[in-house]
């Protein structure tokens, strides 16, 4: 039988206690904002923290900030977080691609949500009467969309017919679900939201129960 001397036993117990005291990595990390390219506002397991590039806070290391995304490392993995997207999670390498969006009705019964176009955060409003995703020109400028190179079209607005530009969005993301190559039109004037029209909605099976709308990705 092996025996430990009293001093060795105390040292072993101290090391064991130190090992047990190591904090677990966070299960959820979300990007809530940025301070230029110097730091990010992260929500780590529900706790808001400011993390500078290269620093580690609560087990989360901020690797880089670029184009509205934060590259972080935690739980032994590196992830890219998008402003307005659902929280990043520690998941299996074989995790199934997310295919469902669940929205709750807000004031007036409208369904609004945060998301991103081409990696840039924006606000959406579901509009089943719109043929395509519709973006006001000021918001299109902010998002860096090159709509002037798009196809010139005429669209029907609340104020009558108006010239517009038809373009393809490389990426439209809501929560964990990302859809690529989405048709959109850029119209004159300022819209309070990007209208989430049928060029996006038709990619999903839609159902509504009371104040909850569920979108299941078809393809």
From TrEMBL:
GO BP, sorted A to Z: proteolysis
A molecular function (GO) term: peptidase activity
InterPro entries the UniProt entry points to: Clan_AA_Asp_peptidase_C, Peptidase_aspartic_dom_sf, Retropepsin-like_bacterial
Signal sequence extent: 1-21
Entry keyword set: Hydrolase, Protease, Signal
The protein's name: Aspartyl protease family protein
């Amino acid at each position: 039988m092996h025996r430990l001397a009293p001093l060795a036993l105390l040292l072993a117990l101290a090391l064991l206690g130190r090992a047990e005291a190591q904090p677990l990595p966070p299960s959820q990390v979300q990007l809530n904002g940025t301070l230029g390219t110097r730091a990010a506002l992260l929500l780590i397991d529900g706790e808001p923290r400011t993390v500078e590039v290269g620093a580690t806070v609560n087990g989360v290391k901020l690797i880089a900030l670029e184009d509205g995304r934060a590259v972080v490392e935690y739980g032994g993995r590196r992830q890219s977080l998008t402003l307005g997207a659902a929280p990043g999670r520690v998941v299996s390498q074989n995790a199934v691609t997310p295919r469902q969006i669940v929205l709750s009705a807000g004031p007036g019964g409208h369904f609004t949500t945060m998301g991103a176009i081409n990696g840039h955060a924006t606000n959406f409003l579901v509009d089943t009467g719109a043929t395509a995703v519709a973006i006001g020109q000021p918001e299109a400028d902010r998002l860096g969309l090159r709509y002037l190179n798009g196809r010139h079209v005429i669209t029907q607005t609340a104020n009558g017919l108006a010239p517009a530009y038809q373009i393809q969005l490389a990426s439209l993301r809501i929560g964990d679900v990302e859809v690529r190559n989405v048709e959109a039109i850029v119209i004159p004037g300022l819209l309070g939201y990007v209208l989430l029209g049928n060029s996006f909605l038709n990619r999903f099976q839609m159902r509504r129960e009371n104040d909850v709308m569920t979108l299941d990705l078809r393809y």
